[in-house]
Amino acid sequence: MNLENFKKECQRIEEDAICSSKGHYNDSSLWLKIHYAIGLPMVVLSAWAGFDIFAKNSEYAGYLTLIITVLASLQTFIKADDKSIQHKNSADELNYLKNKVRRLREIKTEIFAEEKLVKELDTLADKYSQITRVSQPISGRAFRKATKGIKEGQSEYLADN
């Protein structure tokens, strides 16, 4: 086995995992903002409608209830909180995988036999494929933001410089 080729393949998996995890973190953040953008007005308007009902101002309460119904339906339909959690979980798994591959490349190549290295790399590559296969797709916006951040050094460790 050529050790340099082995390390390059590890770096490819690391790079894919970094880009994918950053994209998932970006999408998680977006969906969480959408969740709050729908949920917070719904809470405020619900309180206002309740106040208007007790104040015998049923005209406004009816309009507020209609708006609340639209917001609640929208929140139920798009499930922004679920999407945020799914993207964060995918990002966490990919980040964990990236760290395992990095340790394999940086540390274990010094102590493991070739056969064990190849077997572990195959396992980690399969795990990457499995994670990406079941994950929500990353939006183009999140992917562009992730690649921009990576180019700006957001994924580098001080120890590597």
TrEMBL record:
SMODS and SLOG-associating 2TM effector domain ranges (all copies): 57-155
Alphabetized UniProt keyword annotations: Membrane, Transmembrane, Transmembrane helix
Cross-referenced Pfam families: SLATT_4 (PF18186)
Residues passing through the membrane, by range: 34-54, 60-78
Protein name: SLATT domain-containing protein
Species in which this protein is naturally found: Candidatus Thiodubiliella endoseptemdiera
